[in-house]
Write a structure and sequence with these properties.
This protein is mainly α. It contains 5 helices and 4 strands. The strands form 2 sheets. It has a two-stranded antiparallel ribbon. Strand 3 and strand 4 form a beta hairpin. The longest helix is centred in the first third of the chain and has 17 residues. 16% of the residues are buried.
């Protein structure tokens, strides 16, 4: 998913990048996503088990931000026709104007297509993602995780 840090070292530790350069890189990455580059459109790795954990007492903190992440659906998921995808970014998960997945129930923050949700959603574990939680056990969210969402007016 987009908010994962895939390396042990963040780019800031490896390079001196100005805020202007960071903004340019972010803009270019968004453009590449719009064009469909770097999309994973194929089969998902079936060797991983779905991740299940109790998040009930943390939903009010995280606001189901994982349901706002951008990722490509698998070919099988698209062909099933249940999961909504973005026509402007073919085969990427769709998002509503608030930046969240259209399958997320906004009142209870639960997935309305739970049994048919994407593999990426089944296997993503926010507890291990420092871009989401600074400390899962102490319930300390990384406030930056919301920065990609549209500002409320």
């Amino acid at each position: 998913m987009d908010n994962r840090n895939y390396s042990d070292n963040s780019p800031e530790e490896n390079f001196d990048i100005s805020e202007e350069e960071k903004a340019y890189i972010k803009k270019m990455l968004e453009r590449l996503l719009e064009l469909g580059f770097a999309a994973v459109y194929g089969d998902e790795d079936n060797s991983e088990e779905p991740v299940i954990f109790d998040h009930e007492d943390r939903k009010h903190i995280c606001k189901a931000v994982c349901c706002s992440f951008i990722f490509a659906l698998t070919k099988k998921e698209v062909e099933k026709g249940i999961i909504k995808w973005n026509p402007k970014r073919p085969y990427f998960i769709a998002h509503d104007e608030d930046g969240y997945c259209p399958h997320l129930n906004r009142q209870n923050l639960l997935c309305e297509i739970w049994n048919d949700r994407p593999e990426r959603c089944r296997k993503y574990d926010c507890r291990k993602d420092p871009n989401v939680w600074l400390d899962w056990d102490k319930k300390i969210i990384n406030a930056e995780v919301f920065s990609h969402l549209p500002q409320k007016t």
